[in-house]
TrEMBL record, chains A, B:
Keywords: FAD, Flavoprotein, NAD, Oxidoreductase, Transit peptide. Its EC number is 1.6.5.9. It catalyses: a quinone + NADH + H(+) = a quinol + NAD(+). It comes from Chitinophaga tropicalis. GO terms for molecular function: NADH dehydrogenase (quinone) (non-electrogenic) activity. It comes from the Bacteria. Belongs to the NADH dehydrogenase family. This is NADH:ubiquinone reductase (non-electrogenic). It is an enzyme of class 1 (oxidoreductase). InterPro entries: FAD/NAD-bd_sf, FAD/NAD-binding_dom, NDH-2, NDH2-like_C. Residues 359-413 form the External alternative NADH-ubiquinone oxidoreductase-like C-terminal domain. Residues 18-335 form the FAD/NAD(P)-binding domain.
């Protein structure tokens, strides 16, 4: 087996145990950063050469931040490491028996495999939705939405027919979780403060923002107080909220709900569900609905040397019988847990099980408006919650440079209410969008 | 004709003369900003909803600036105007006899038509070059180059075969004008200061940066002193400069020069020529090699109410018998000239002919290195020229917000030598690039 270990992917031979990490989200990044450089060779795989700060994706989508501000260049983050190796590639399969992971650039042996591949959008088999709705999981997703949104306002301003204009300005957000709530708030502020200056001849009273949630309240993982406050604040901002609303179909122009109601719209964001991203080669009995079942030490049950963390992991505990919430904190904490304990596990020492420390949940609604559930059933709404949100997010941004950029942008937005990133850098051309095809050059298009 | 005037493109009816401006580059933008709001209805057309600050495109391409920093949102720039109308569309043709311009969104009548559509890349009929080389005229062009460049380093780090690595790291810049010179300098600094930290296992002594120029000196429009200094500085930075080098072909892997020399490279920037972008419907006798012949009042000779400014215009004067240089200043000055004088022209008053005020030429080579030709045959090189360059470019950035962003980025770069924008936000997939196709998701791709 030595030759593979030496040559594959141009990773140097080593006598240290090799840890291969799949995915540079919050889980993978924190694992890599916590593993001791001198004890392990660390190999990190991702399809992108940057870490995406997902909690702020909605700000890129709503033109408050530029894309580069929420992307942390992976190689820069590890300049101080000696035996760390990032490789940009896609993982094709795992051979757990051989302890080999197969990639688009060839196979690589591992001693420990950390699967932190996150979650992908779940359309629950709705093909039309997958074809026409926009997901919001990656930076290109967010840029596609930003382009599509700005294109619609541009098309609307070309149009002298008021009936068509109504149709053009509607936006439907499916899923009342943090993404849906934060997008609804951001779009509502765009509509009130920013867009009327850009498009003085458009009637923004005809721009309806719909937020659809299948359950009976917004922000289901948060407290009932937070749900109620978010609903109240959003409704005050003019968002049309429909609870218990099940989406049946979307043909690119009309969303049809299960109860027969129809909403005309050219733009739908789908954030109503995620599913784990399971790698081929993993025995199906190791997983449940796409998520890898782990013991309380993050080890995939039944495996030899494979760990799963973050959204792709399903660790059933007494406190979290259905697994941990699919947000950044559990992924970060699991990553740190594995990174700090792997040496002890490698040497057969006893390690305490993983314990999730719930720091609380936050969702921002608008300028000076947020909801915060803090530990001990403490709830904050309004301005105080917003300052907590601001502080936490600036703290978490992965590098000083990004903090600086984000702060500069936010300060500007705060004082001017102008969001300067309303740029269609790469137009988005949806299937059959002949108008966009006629205007834009092929080599400048986003998707 | 009234119905067209009223309904077309949703532009309000008016009793004022309507000025239609095609293209929001330096010429079009300055025309629109200089025209008096109360005297004219101003309609501005562009395919993008932003103005591109072209002199800094090479900084986006070389990962020193994020895209949004050099894009000025067109609608924001005209918030204070009452009878200004931006429309995002493509102009299809002009009917000079009818005074109508046809667009992807329908026809529009004009009283005055300002053509400021700029120049496009001229491949001189070389189809292979058009297929494989990257142009550098738009922000998506620059982002495509940035992605392609970073992808090549990622592929090279997967590769254990040193022969292939040589090939992968070469870069060829065709054209020794400002774009070629500034890119060569920026890439050379990336190679020396930034990339070795990101890719500690790559041998950057094998990364050759070639700068090819067909004439016998770099920066042909500048002084001989500037040409010599740029050559000396770039060669000291390790750029391989070939003067009198005519490119014959590029098959995607090998550049072949007319003298038979071959250079292996996966990445070629073509900035060796431009040509005017002539709109269909313009009588061919009005133009010379794609550029519209104008009198000394910027009026297209033979036309009724059509003006041409900037790169698309060819005004032959005693001082500039071949027309003005294809840089920002003539376009800016012509735009201001038309904007300020159109009311007088409209009222039949006598107007002084346009006179180009040459403020000098600048090109930056690297940190603390630039060349500057100032009026009166004054030449500066080195640090002083660089400070002039810095001052001029910050001054010219179209809005305060962008100035702030660019300054924040530059300050960061200056102190850290780290360029934080080395992100492959949207991968670039060149024809036949199977490796990239295997790794990247289709809906995230740039082109």
């Amino acid at each position: 087996m030595e030759p593979i270990r030496q040559l594959a992917l141009n990773i140097p031979a080593t006598t240290k145990p090799r840890v291969v990490i799949v995915g540079a989200g919050f889980g993978g990044l924190n694992t890599a950063q916590s593993l001791p450089d001198e004890k392990f060779q660390v190999v990190l795989f991702d399809k992108h050469n940057y870490h995406t700060f997902q909690p702020l994706l909605y700000q890129v989508a709503s033109a408050a931040l530029q894309a580069d501000a929420i992307a942390g260049p992976l190689r820069s983050l590890f300049h101080n490491r000696k035996d760390f190796h990032f490789r940009m590639l896609r993982v094709l399969s795992v051979e757990p028996g051989m302890k080999v992971v197969n990639t688009t650039a060839g196979p690589l042996e591992y001693d420990y495999l950390i699967i932190s591949s996150g979650a992908k959008t779940n359309y629950f088999g709705n093909e039309n939705m997958q074809k026409y709705a926009l997901p919001l999981k990656t930076i290109p997703n967010a840029l596609n939405f930003r382009s599509q949104l700005m294109q619609l306002f541009e098309w609307a301003s070309l149009n002298a027919n008021p009936d068509i204009e109504d149709h053009l300005l509607n936006i439907v957000l499916v899923g009342g979780g943090p993404t849906g709530v934060e997008m609804a708030g951001a779009l509502s502020e765009l509509r009130k403060k920013v867009l009327p200056k850009d498009y003085p001849r458009l009637d923004f009273s005809k721009m309806n923002i719909y937020l659809l949630e299948g359950l009976d309240r917004l922000l289901p993982p948060m407290s009932a107080k937070a749900s109620a406050r978010a609903k109240k604040d959003l409704e005050k901002m003019g968002v049309i909220i429909k609870l218990g609303a099940m989406v049946q179909d979307y043909d690119g122009e009309t969303v049809t709900l299960k109860d027969g109601e129809q909403i005309k719209t050219y733009i739908v964001i789908w954030s109503a569900g995620v599913t784990g991203e399971l790698t081929p080669g993993i025995p199906p009995e190791w997983a449940e609905r796409g998520r890898l079942l782990t013991d309380t030490h993050c080890k995939v049950i039944g495996s030899n040397g494979i760990f799963a963390i973050g959204d792709v992991a399903l660790m059933k505990t007494e406190d979290y019988p259905k697994g941990h919430p699919g947000v950044a904190q559990p992924a970060i904490q699991m990553g740190k847990y594995i990174g700090k304990n792997l040496d002890a596990i490698h040497n057969g020492r006893t390690v305490k099980p993983f314990k999730y420390f719930d720091k609380g949940s936050l969702a921002t609604i608008g300028r000076g408006k947020a909801v915060a559930d803090l530990p001990g059933n403490i709830f904050f709404g309004g301005r105080l919650a917003w300052f907590i949100w601001l502080f936490v997010h600036v703290q978490f941004l992965v590098s000083f440079r990004n903090k600086l950029l984000v702060l500069a942008n936010w300060t500007w937005n705060l004082f001017t209410f102008d969001k300067g990133n309303r740029l269609i850098i790469r137009p988005y051309i949806r299937k059959g969008d002949e108008r966009a095809k006629a205007v834009f050059a092929e080599n400048e298009v986003g998707s």
